[in-house]
Amino acid sequence: MDVTLKMADNKQTKTPEQGAQQPAKKHRMLKISILRFNPQDPESVPHMQTFELEESDSMTLFIALNELRDHQDPSLQFDFVCRAGICGSCAMMINGKPGLACRTLTRDLPEEFTLAPLPAFELIGDLSVNTGKWMRDMSERMETWVHMKEAEVDLRKKEEPMDPQLAEDIYVLDRCVECGCCIAGCGTVRIRPDFVGGVGINKIARFRLDPRDTRNDADYYDLVGDESGVFGCMSLLACHDFCPKDLPLKTQIAFIRRKMAEQGMRGYDKVLPTHKKAIPIKVERH
After folding, report:
1. Judging by DSSP bridges, how do beta strands 91-94 and 112-116 pair with one another?
2. How many Å apart are CA 209 and CA 204, to the nearest integer?
3. What domains can be seen in the chain, in order of their start residue?
4. pTM
5. pLDDT (tens digit, 9 = 90+) per residue, 52-109?
6. Which helix (H) or strand (E) holds 113?
7. Which of 2, 32, 174, 185 could hold 238 in an S-S bridge, CB 3.0 to 4.6 Å?
């Protein structure tokens, strides 16, 4: 009985203030200015259109754009697929900086901000650009596939083992989602549209690590050993700053540039080109 009374005394009774419902959280009213333009419509002209939207808890820019398209303007064009920062489709210029809409929280933005399509890519409409066309062209130029000795791969053959650390290093570079943020933030691309950017140089670094790839530095020099490749980089490194996957782009650019510089030096014959892609290296004779 004493224990029961003691437990009852220890119970805290709620005051009227504590029992009352908490007031609803007041959300901000966002003003989103979007660059609108449809190149397929001859009467369309580029212009900024401002939308107002009430912010919700944990709202991402992706959610905000869907709210605008569903309830205010169904003609608004933008891309999305995974909503998890994996496909890279929703990349756009957010207050002048490239980023992924699905990974950007509106609470990290001011009440008024602007959205625009990524530069350097073919515009489809509004915030939608054709990054796939650019990435395909770049991949074909960089030959971003494993070059093996065998003409045909025997799928029944047991896969060769790989050192776990090497596999991890390849995986880190292979996490690129080809969103185009590195290209949109690159100063060299504005000067040289044929520049392969951080994404192209990163792919060279990735296949250079792969032990299944039979190419060597002479072959890679043929791909990126000029101003449209690694020597065109001005080392502004916006690609590194804006990469949503936090890839070590500045490290890879510096490493590939050093290796390509060694390969391009006169008389440097430590790495010879493969027979299938012979690259003449002039050697001064004394």
Report:
1. antiparallel
2. 9
3. 29-129 (3.10.20.30), 162-274 (1.10.1060.10)
4. 0.82
5. 999 999 999 999 999 999 999 999 999 999 989 999 999 999 999 999 999 999 999 9
6. strand 112-116
7. 185
